[in-house]
Amino acid sequence: MTFTAKQGEVTALVGPSGGGKTTVSRLAARFWDVTKGRITVGGQDVSRIDPETLLSVYSIVFQDVTLFNNSILENIRVGKKDASDDEVLAAARLANCDEFALKLPKGYATLIGENGSELSGGERQRISIARAMLKGAPIVLLDEATASLDVENETKVQGALSRLLTGKTVLVIAHRMRTVEAADKVIVLADGKAAEQGSPAELMEKNDGMFRRMTLVQASSAEWSI
Question: The pTM is what?
Answer without folding.
Answer: 0.86
